[in-house]
Amino acid sequence: MYSRKVIEEFTDPKNVGVIEDADGVGETGSTVDGDIITIYIKVKDEVLEDVRFKTFGCVVAISTSTMVTQLAKGKKIDEALKITNKDVIDALGGLPEDKRRCSGFALAALHKAIEDYKERGTA
Amino acid sequence: MMSTMKRIYMDHSATTEVDPLVLDSMLPYFTEKFGNASSLHSFGQEAIEALSAARQQVADSIGAKANEIIFTSGGTESDNLAIRGVLAKKKNDTSRSQHIITSMIEHPAVLSTCSFLESIGYEVTYVPVDSEGVLDLDKLERSVRDDTSIISIMHANNEIGTIQPVKDIARIARDKDVYFHTDAVQSFGKIPVDVNEMGVDMLSISSHKIHGPKGAGVLYVREGTELEPFIFGGGHEQGLRPGTENIPGIVGLGKAMSLAKERLGHDPEHMLRLRDSLIDRIFDSLDDVRLNGHPTQRLPNNVNLSFRYVEGESLLMLLDVKGIAISTASACSSISKKESHVLSSIGLNADYIHGTIRISLGKDNTIEETDHVVQSLQESVGKLREMSAISKS
């Protein structure tokens, strides 16, 4: 029911981990929901030099987390903000219709991390 | 991807493979003995003989009489027939038609039937269970009303394996003159099921859970219990379940039940040894694990575990990639994370509820397979915890 690409990304996720000196951190979800996604970003000259994640959640939560980090890494911040949920799902070779609930969480966590970075800059 | 890997099946509460002896018993009834049991000619005669023999096998396996066996399409239909059949029969008896008692942890076959009945005006009491999944007998007794028609409480739970005190429930039902139905779909073949010993009026069994074919089941109906059918047609199955009998399925079911009964002294003991060894070794190798359900009053083949900091579906998929088939009770859908009603009813904490899996053993699982499962669980849980946003570190 999951695409081959989803299973590949899920079983061998890239960019797992914490960035200790991150420039921005974003978290979505709760234990009650059953998904928590934290995204860490390292920024240099407005480019997302490193993007990492830690995720507690289902197959969709984990595979979208790793895909979001892969799509965002190396992009300028304004470009990264243009990544859509559809881009993430397409890059995963699609998601089953009834499993899309958690698919937006990882992207939302990335947006929060960028917001956090911007707030730190203005502080 | 799976072709070169030896797969391990530990999801026997979902379904089981058909026993070769069962399959052999069925095969002639697809081809040379294909008759309709309602026909008067020799083809029909062969079908009738097969039907009677299977009915006797089923009856003997649960200590019943042959005329107390109604063949159905499976557990869900049997549960529906028991509950709706009693209510339909009592519909003109206004003093006795309004109220149903069940538990909070029943199978959807019972719970969804009850919620449908609520939607058309019946009242249902859902009796709670304790943290180990055992029914609160006092609450059950106190919930019986003058207009209660039926009590339906499962023999053993499909998720956490807890075995209910059915004899005590039967005693209460008898004292209050209320029918008692039990869903024995998970328990038959694992623990003794004898309708007189248990004192039940009705009992459901499904064929595919006990190495029989899918699409066949039984409702035991104690002599004198009054039911009305909810589907209508010819007079088959004493008019309670019209429709041409599924002879191959019924023959397979009869054989599967006989075999399960014969093996009752052996198979459950084997599964129990595997179960307890599996539980012990998982607890030895991993922290932050809990066993759900009753420690001893549980099915010999049921292991239901919650792993903190991991999510059940992810664990299931990692194990599947390693060739191990288990199941999870909570499912993630487009609208919500659907929590298991059973785990909520035993008061399991949200920290654990999402990280729950069920391993259900079968008679042919081996200790070597459990070794592989323990090792794979250790690796997979470790991997997910490394990745988890809520690990304790």
From TrEMBL, chain A:
<dbReference type="GO" id="GO:0005506">
    <property type="term" value="F:iron ion binding"/>
</dbReference>
<protein>
    <submittedName>
        <fullName>Iron-sulfur cluster assembly scaffold protein</fullName>
    </submittedName>
</protein>
<dbReference type="Pfam" id="PF01592">
    <property type="entry name" value="NifU_N"/>
</dbReference>
<dbReference type="GO" id="GO:0051536">
    <property type="term" value="F:iron-sulfur cluster binding"/>
</dbReference>
<dbReference type="GO" id="GO:0016226">
    <property type="term" value="P:iron-sulfur cluster assembly"/>
</dbReference>
<feature type="domain" description="NIF system FeS cluster assembly NifU N-terminal">
    <location>
        <begin position="1"/>
        <end position="121"/>
    </location>
</feature>
<dbReference type="InterPro" id="IPR002871">
    <property type="entry name" value="NIF_FeS_clus_asmbl_NifU_N"/>
</dbReference>
